[in-house]
Design a protein that fits this description.
heterodimer; A: 322 residues; alpha/beta; Rossmann fold; six-stranded parallel β-sheet; two-stranded antiparallel ribbon; 8 strands; 11% strand; B: 328 residues; 2 domains; seven-stranded mixed β-sheet; five-stranded mixed β-sheet; 13 helices; globular
Chain lengths: 322, 328
């Protein structure tokens, strides 16, 4: 995989990871400055998961996310303007400020929503798989959730049904080792989530979620199996969130040593280091990408800042579909 | 008009909608090979095959969740909860997801689905199988709630519900399945949110829905003997709620009784009573009367159960007391 990718593809992967990193860091800053309210769950450290999986999917494939959804939405093609404006609660946001950080959605991108009840998106992704199969569409549905979600009944009910009905759903457990503040060792009897696939007679694999190329490779294989076999698949990606569960979480349940170990595995700096050392990129080329991302983020913040609040009529407009 | 049972009318609505629209599919426990715990889905598997009539495991959360997802993917699923009691296992998908998706995604996604469920009490099924839960759904913005009382309404409302672009909770009282009535043939639609004034009267307005409408009708017949002319409104739906029909009638009669078989506290009857008080106070000659079940889990013993439930006599007594008329 490392050798087979075009340089432009590697550039894209780097740019997207760097964009998510800077988007999230900026969101944190805006939260602390009072520009963003509510819960804000950031995905710094987990960029390789979003970017690697999305690079293995087609634009036409559905993606379902959970509440840590900024990175998924950006990697699926949402503009940083639309996502930032949503975090600011503005009318120009991806959901006109009605959704917020945890409920991003864009039908045109087949980004089918962030859901903020742990495990709640898994049955919905399964239902999208049912629609795909019924309509004989040549697409799949990829569903992201965390290690906390696999202890919900929704996970069990979904995988069982998906196997029974052969639904084309790629279940992706973004295992960052903590369900909010609880270590997976304290919440799960089986801590290798992919092994749970065996209970449903579906394939399960695990990959390093800190390496975008490994993620891409594993997700490509998984998506291929789902596409060809009309069978669900469980892919576990082991990763780590650098920040606490949300901006409201002081995060005092992890050791500094543990955080340092994971930061040494940083998906962005290690990617850059490897491809500079191997002569694929000149350091300046990466610097240029970084600069262009900084411009994009700055623009997104200005856009969000200068956008209007939603009209009060929106308060009741979408309670029911007409 | 063709006379048929409530069960047959529901079955006819499902068949007609499935013939008309390939996107309509049925999901639920025992809906296909068993043909429905209450036989509402009889013959559907034979006609439409297992691609469209799907037996599920006993997994209520994924029944509703997969209905939501498939609706977002362009289908029009009808999910059956064998009884409403089991819908509580799927309440996260119903209240946190189905009801909110259109709103929180600013109208970008629709969830056109129907959740059919049998409910009701009075059959000695014990506390966990004898509930009326319409108030749980009524409380939550984003859900439509339909409760037909007659075979004709069962057909017309179910067809309207399947064609609606919102999640519709469709509650069927298990005591109604074998009742019969005339049903219009063909594409008969009863729009959601249009109450039915099933008896005209000048003296008192009696408002109800689902099975207790039948008790209200019988009560009205007996009240005639006391020269009391009761107006009876069958709401058909609690959301949308046809407040205009309610208020017009109460403003005419000046007296209102609201009847349902659910628990009294926090019930649909409580909500309707409050709406009448807020909107018709100048016309009311007496406070609104609610007739509901006792606030207890349902006992198994027949005498105790019947004592907990409202009856025709309660309606008659309430009307007479409001009118201060003595029976002959």
């Amino acid at each position: 995989m490392r050798k087979s990718l075009e340089k432009s593809e590697l550039e894209d992967l780097y740019r997207q990871m760097y964009l998510i990193r800077r988007f999230e860091e900026t969101a944190a800053e805006m939260y602390l400055r009072g520009k963003i309210s509510g819960f804000t769950h950031l995905a710094t450290g987990e960029e390789a998961v979003s970017v690697g999986v999305m690079s293995a999917l087609f634009d036409k494939d559905y993606v379902v996310s959970a509440y840590r959804d900024h990175g998924h939405a950006l990697a699926k093609g949402a503009s940083s303007r639309a996502v930032m404006a949503e975090l600011f609660g503005k009318d120009t946001g991806i959901c006109h400020g009605l959704g917020g950080s945890m409920h991003l959605f864009d039908q045109s991108l087949k980004f089918m929503g962030g859901y903020a009840i742990v495990g709640g998106g898994i049955p919905i992704a399964t239902g999208l798989g049912l629609a795909i199969k019924y309509k004989c569409e040549d697409i799949i549905c990829a569903c992201f959730f965390g290690d906390g979600a696999v202890n919900e009944g929704a996970f069990h009910e979904s995988l069982n049904l998906a196997r029974l009905w052969h639904l084309p759903v790629l279940y992706i457990c973004e295992n960052n080792l903590y369900a909010m503040g609880t270590d997976i060792m304290r919440s799960s009897a089986v801590t290798d989530v992919y092994k749970r696939a065996e209970a449903y007679d579906i394939p399960g694999e695990c990959a390093n979620g800190m390496d975008v190329l490994e993620v891409k490779e594993a997700a490509t294989q998984a998506a291929k199996k789902v596409r060809q076999g009309n069978s669900p698949y469980l892919l576990e990606l082991k990763t780590y969130r650098y920040r606490a569960h949300s901006m409201a979480d002081p995060g005092r349940y992890r050791t500094l040593e543990e955080e340092e170990i994971w930061k040494e595995r940083d998906p962005i700096t290690n990617f850059a280091k490897y491809f500079v050392e191997t002569g694929v990129f000149e350091p300046d080329e990466l610097k240029n990408i970084q600069n262009s991302v900084e411009m994009e983020i700055k623009d997104a913040v200005e856009f969000a800042e200068n956008s209007p609040n939603p009209d009060l009529s929106l308060l009741t407009e979408f309670v029911y579909a007409e | 008009m063709v006379e048929m049972t409530y069960r047959e009318a529901l079955n006819q609505a499902l068949k007609e909608e499935m013939r008309k629209d390939e996107k309509v599919i049925i999901l639920g426990e025992e809906v296909a090979y068993y043909q429905g715990a209450y036989k509402v889905t009889q013959g559907l598997l034979a006609e439409f095959g297992d691609k469209r009539v799907k037996d599920t495991p006993i997994s209520e959360e994924i029944i509703i969740g997969s209905a939501i997802g498939s609706a977002m993917g362009g289908m029009r699923p009808v999910a059956e909860m064998m009884t409403v009691n089991f819908s509580l296992l799927a309440m996260d998908q119903i209240a946190n997801h189905a009801a909110k998706i259109h709103y929180m995604f600013a109208g970008q996604a629709k969830v056109p689905m129907v959740i059919r469920a049998a409910q009701g009490a009075g059959k000695q099924l014990g506390a966990q199988h004898s509930q009326h839960l319409e108030a749980y759904f009524l409380h939550c913005p984003g859900l439509r709630v339909a409760l037909p009382s007659t075979p004709a309404d069962a057909k017309g409302l179910l067809k309207a519900s399947i064609r609606d672009d919102n999640p519709v909770i469709f509650l069927e009282d298990q005591g109604l399945y074998s009742t019969s009535g005339d049903v219009p043939p063909g594409d008969y639609i009863v729009p959601l949110g249009k109450a039915n004034v099933i008896r005209n009267g000048e003296d008192v307005t009696i408002i109800s829905y689902s099975k207790t409408v039948l008790d209200c009708l019988e009560a009205a017949k007996e009240l005639e003997k006391s020269n009391v002319e009761a107006e009876i409104i069958d709401l058909r739906c609690l959301n949308p709620l046809d407040t205009k029909t309610i208020f017009d009638s109460v403003r005419k009669t000046g007296l209102a009784i609201v009847v349902n078989e659910a628990w009294k506290t926090g019930s649909a009857a409580a909500e309707i009573s409050c709406l009448i008080s807020e909107n018709c106070s100048d016309y009311l000659d007496a406070p609104v009367v609610r007739i509901s079940a006792l606030d207890t889990p349902m006992p198994y013993n027949k005498v105790l159960e019947q004592t907990a439930l409202p009856h025709k006599k309660d309606i008659i007594d309430a009307a007479l007391e409001l009118l201060q008329v003595t029976q002959p």
